Fold this sequence. Notes:
single chain, alpha+beta, 2 helices
Amino acid sequence: xxxxxxxxxxxxxxxxxxxxxxxxxxxxxxxxxxxxxxxxxxxxxxxxxxxxxxxxxxxxxxxxxxxxxxxxxxxxxxxxxxxxxxxxxxxxxxxxxxxxxxxxxxxxxxxxxx
Length: 114
C-alpha cells in the first residue's frame, strides 16, 4: 500500500508485566510528551485514576489520540497510538512508552487506516 493510499497509523499495543505509574499528574505529563515525540499536536489530556487501582488516560491530538489503560491486578497495560499526517511518528511514541514502562512482553498490532 502506498503512503498516499491511507490516512492514518494505528498502533494497538499490549504490555505484559510493565512498571505501573498510578499518579494521574505523571500520566498526564507522559501522554503529553508521547504526543510531542510522535510529532503530533496535543490539545487536551484527561486522566482517571480508579479508586482501588488502575488508570485510564487519553491525550486528544489535532491528529487523533493516544490512550493508555492499566490493569495492575492483571499485570497488563493497553496502549493505543492513533495518528494521522505525513509527518507523524507513532513508533517513536511507542519506543518512549517501552523505555518508561519496561514491559516483560509486548504484543503489537499495526494498522494503516483509511
